[in-house]
Amino acid sequence: MTFTQHEKAILSTLKDIVLETECIYSDDLVSADPKVLRGALSSLIKKGVIDVDTDYPSNINGTVYYPVNYWDERVLEQVA
């Protein structure tokens, strides 16, 4: 599977976060540049690499966060 530069940035961020915790929110993946990376996150969801749970968001201090509940481990292993 081929990924764009922005998709690779999200996957790299995900790989770094997974080293410390498995509690990941979509905002964690796009926080570096939300306007640009939201489209890449959407693309990764459509490709089935990441799944974000939109049914049960968390409301933290008035901001809604969506938990990432699946990511393809094989893809993360390929990310440099």
> What is the number of independent domains?
1
Inertia-based shape: globular
Fraction in beta strands: 15-25%
Number of strands: 5
Q: Determine and state the CATH class.
A: Mainly Alpha
Largest β sheet strand count, sense and barrel closure: 3 strands, antiparallel
Helix/strand-derived category reads: alpha+beta
Instruction: Name the CATH architecture.
Output: Orthogonal Bundle
Strand order, sheet with most strands: 1-5-2
The parts where pLDDT drops under 50 for at least 5 residues are none
Any idea of the CATH topology?
Arc Repressor Mutant, subunit A
DSSP helix count? Answer: 4
Helix content: 40-55%
Mean pLDDT across all amino acids: 92
Structural write-up:
The structure is a single chain. By secondary structure, the chain is an alpha+beta fold. The protein has one domain: Arc Repressor Mutant, subunit A (Orthogonal Bundle), CATH 1.10.10. It has 4 helices and 5 strands; from the N terminus they run H-E-H-H-E-E-E-E-H. The strands form 2 sheets. The protein has a 3-stranded antiparallel beta sheet with strand order 1-5-2. A two-stranded antiparallel ribbon has the order 3-4. The longest helix has 14 residues, at 5-18. The radius of gyration is 12 Å and the shape is globular. The relative contact order is 0.21.
Summarize the structure.
This protein has 80 residues and is of the alpha+beta class.
Properties at a glance:
80 residues, alpha+beta, Arc Repressor Mutant, subunit A, three-stranded antiparallel sheet, 4 helices, 5 strands
